[in-house]
């Protein structure tokens, strides 16, 4: 497992090798890694190496080397969590019905500022996050139940648009607890978010269930208020055209002139 994890990450990153080879640092690191495996496992070379194994075989890793490789593998997996999805059992991507608008780094600000009468609930997510994929069907179901003219649901992939995560202060670190993040916008401004962030910048633990979202964001109240506003806008009376009054004819004119 200690050797298999870096190899899987390497195979997954084959399309990027061309860019790596253009930098001597990455090329030298790859050569040193391969050289270590060859020297440590190839019989003509490893036979002369000292070993602390009980069986005296110098071509197998001893317990200290296994511990070091396992530790390094854990560091590689944490730093490259997005590339490690092949090694974990992830829930399938949600492909069901939804009433959600997807933003990119340019459209999110424009849409929030376009009509400040509209209340937005926006999910900041990343495709590589298990928690985001588990929450996807719940969020889609909420959008089908509560979406209306004055209450809209949106999503933005902060794993793809890193400037959005920086602008809205949503961490995309492999060890972050801020994915997914739900933010309520009213009048184009942030009103509340879940999970909350404490004074030390850490996310406060919060369960992304349908009941919690409805309760914390007052979706029932927001929905009723948005419906009333939309009905009030639809029932606004239109201005009726003013009928023109006939002009009076001076008394001195004859019937023919009239």
TrEMBL record:
<dbReference type="GO" id="GO:0031966">
    <property type="term" value="C:mitochondrial membrane"/>
</dbReference>
<keyword id="KW-0472">Membrane</keyword>
<dbReference type="GO" id="GO:0007420">
    <property type="term" value="P:brain development"/>
</dbReference>
<keyword id="KW-1133">Transmembrane helix</keyword>
<comment type="function">
    <text>Endoplasmic reticulum and mitochondria-associated protein that probably functions as a regulator of cellular redox state and thereby regulates protein post-translational modification, protein folding and mitochondrial activity. Indirectly regulates neuronal proliferation, migration, and organization in the developing brain.</text>
</comment>
<feature type="domain" description="Thioredoxin">
    <location>
        <begin position="36"/>
        <end position="231"/>
    </location>
</feature>
<dbReference type="Pfam" id="PF00085">
    <property type="entry name" value="Thioredoxin"/>
</dbReference>
<protein>
    <recommendedName>
        <fullName>Thioredoxin-related transmembrane protein 2</fullName>
    </recommendedName>
</protein>
<dbReference type="InterPro" id="IPR036249">
    <property type="entry name" value="Thioredoxin-like_sf"/>
</dbReference>
<keyword id="KW-0812">Transmembrane</keyword>
<comment type="subunit">
    <text>Monomer. Homodimer; disulfide-linked. Occurs in both reduced and oxidized monomeric form. Oxidative conditions increase homodimerization. Interacts with CANX. Interacts with ATP2A2.</text>
</comment>
<dbReference type="InterPro" id="IPR037463">
    <property type="entry name" value="TMX2_thioredoxin_dom"/>
</dbReference>
<dbReference type="InterPro" id="IPR039101">
    <property type="entry name" value="TMX2"/>
</dbReference>
<dbReference type="GO" id="GO:0015036">
    <property type="term" value="F:disulfide oxidoreductase activity"/>
</dbReference>
<feature type="region of interest" description="Disordered">
    <location>
        <begin position="230"/>
        <end position="258"/>
    </location>
</feature>
<dbReference type="InterPro" id="IPR013766">
    <property type="entry name" value="Thioredoxin_domain"/>
</dbReference>
<keyword id="KW-0732">Signal</keyword>
């Amino acid at each position: 497992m200690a050797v298999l994890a870096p190899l899987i990450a390497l195979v997954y990153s084959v399309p990027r090798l061309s860019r790596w080879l253009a930098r001597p640092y990455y090329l030298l690191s790859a050569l040193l890694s391969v050289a270590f495996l060859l020297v440590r496992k190839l019989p003509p070379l490893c036979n002369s190496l000292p070993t602390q194994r009980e069986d005296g075989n110098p071509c197998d890793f001893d317990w200290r080397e296994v511990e070091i490789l396992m530790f390094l593998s854990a560091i590689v997996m944490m730093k490259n969590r997005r590339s490690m999805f092949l090694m974990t059992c992830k829930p399938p991507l949600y492909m069901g019905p939804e009433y959600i608008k997807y933003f990119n780094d340019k459209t999110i600000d424009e849409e929030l500022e376009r009509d400040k009468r509209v209340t937005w609930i926006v999910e900041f997510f990343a495709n590589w996050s298990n928690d985001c994929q588990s929450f996807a069907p719940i969020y889609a179901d909420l959008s089908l139940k509560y979406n209306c003219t004055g209450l809209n649901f949106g999503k933005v992939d902060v794993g793809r648009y890193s400037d959005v995560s920086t602008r809205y202060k949503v961490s995309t670190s492999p060890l972050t607890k801020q994915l997914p993040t739900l933010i309520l916008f009213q009048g184009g401004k942030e009103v509340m978010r879940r999970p909350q962030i404490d004074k030390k910048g850490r996310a406060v633990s919060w369960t992304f269930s349908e009941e919690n979202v409805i309760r914390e964001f007052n979706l029932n109240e927001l929905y009723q208020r948005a419906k009333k506003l939309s009905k009030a806008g639809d029932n606004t009376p239109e201005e009726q055209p003013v009928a023109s009054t006939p002009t009076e004819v001076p008394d001195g004119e004859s019937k023919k002139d009239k």
